[in-house]
Amino acid sequence: MSNVLVNILSLIVVLGVLIFVHELGHFLAAKAAGMYVHRFSVGMGAPVKALTWKRGETEYCISWLPLGGYVKVASGEEDPSSAALEGGAANADVPKHRMYESKSIPARIIFVLAGVAMNVLFAWLVFSGLNYANGSTVYPVTAVGGVNTDSLPPGAEGLAVLVLGDRIERVAGQPMTSWEDIQEAILSTPADSFAIEIAGKPPIAVRIHRDALEARVRAAQALIPYIAPVIGTVVAGGPGDKAGIKTGDTLVAINGEPIGEWRRAVEAIEAHPDMDLTLTVGRAGGRQDLAARTLAESDGSRTVGKLRLGPDVPERHEPVSFGGSLVLGAKQTVAVSTQIVRVVRGMFSGRVSTREVGGPIAIGMAAGQSAQLGVTAFLAFMATISVNLAVLNLLPIPVLDGGQLLFLLGEAVLRRPLSIKLRERLTFVGLILIGLLMVLAFSNDIRRLLGLL
């Protein structure tokens, strides 16, 4: 199956499920409040007749515009602009007590926020389920294997002084026990300036604003964890196997050059395609020199040497209890939502580039990549996008749930609804803003495809 088809199918699954979950929240809240529901739609605009059916008072359908969805509840003040997005005006004879406006403000607020709540609940359940099914994998290493100094963003230049073997003890005052702790601390520390404390050395100051998430990610990814040059995997019949290398051996030197870390070994082997190497290994009986000839493999841009060996990565896999998985799932949901809020806030402050905005094409590509990595990665991606939808829907833009919430809060303060004309004008402005955002997203998507971003 081609990558394009995988991307398209993955996008359909992700958006279809998440839109359904979101609208189901609105639908259940409307039914619970006694509102009359004309239509439940996945997709915007007019329903596709072949994909429409009716049960009771409500019509269920898939609509033509595959960007969003809606639950059309009976209203005595139907906005023409929203009516067009919701398949036109409804003509059913509805009792006044079942109209949207007849319900209390708290009931309408619950209806407005129910979609967001369902998206958050979905993400929490998915994260929790993955934690319970897969357990937790920890990489209990805090030593540094190297630093990609070219990737360091402004404010993190001090990390360039780290050398092989330096052990990170604390980040922002918090003790570090694993590489995951270090990465998470750099990404999520709320201070705009924090210290990274190194064993036996002066602390290193990192000055990156909390909302400059891209810079935080670059700083975290520039650090490379230490991996000992210990053989954990030997592919049967490969060059390493033929040379006599065994699991548990330590690579001490290659062609006489000392090897202190796994990536150094990889660099040395890849630099010698289809060549003879002398491998000095340490084992229980002492050091031994072995002769090996590398394979030559091309990755499209260069030809590298391979010995078909893998490192002994000190990962620790721990099962997670049911209760623990719920707690961990909640922490992951909060962490994802916090990062999204920081990105949105950073865009308004200029600390996050508008080039980071992605549309359906970008989501489809990411969804396809996660699907190819397996069910776990795909579900985790879907949960992350679900939280994205929840947070973005809370933006105070009239056509979004956050805008509708503002209308209701205004009504609660004024003790009367905002005028229809004012709501129509604000909704029109909201439509323009969403339209501009979609133009930006599609523009970025196209430029990414063309290699211009």
Short note summarizing the structure:
It is built from twelve helices and 18 strands. The protein has 453 residues and is α+β, with helices and mostly antiparallel strands. It has a four-stranded antiparallel β-sheet, covered by helices on one side. It has a four-stranded antiparallel β-sheet with strand order 12-11-13-14. A two-stranded antiparallel ribbon has the order 1-2.
Question: Which terms would index this structure?
Answer:
single chain, 453 residues, alpha+beta, Pdz3 Domain, 3 domains, four-stranded antiparallel β-sheet, 12 helices, 18 strands, elongated
Average the pLDDT over all residues and give the rounded result: 89
Q: What order do the strands of the largest sheet run in, or round the barrel if closed?
A: 6-5-7-8
Q: Helical residue percent?
A: 40-55%
- Helices and strands, in order, run as HEEHHEEEEHEEHEEHEEHEEEEEEHHHHH
Principal-axes shape call: elongated
What percentage of the residues does DSSP assign to strands (E)?
Answer: 15-25%
Total DSSP helices: 12
Radius of gyration: 28 Å
The tally of beta strands, per DSSP, is 18
Description:
It contains twelve helices and 18 strands. The chain is of the alpha+beta class. It has three domains: 105-135 and 322-453, no CATH class; 144-225, Pdz3 Domain; 231-312, PDZ domain (Pdz3 Domain). Strands 6-5-7-8 form a four-stranded antiparallel sheet, with helices on one face. It has a four-stranded antiparallel sheet with strand order 12-11-13-14. Helix 1 crosses helix 3, helix 3 packs across helix 8 and helix 3 packs antiparallel against helix 10 (375-393). The two termini are 27 Å apart.
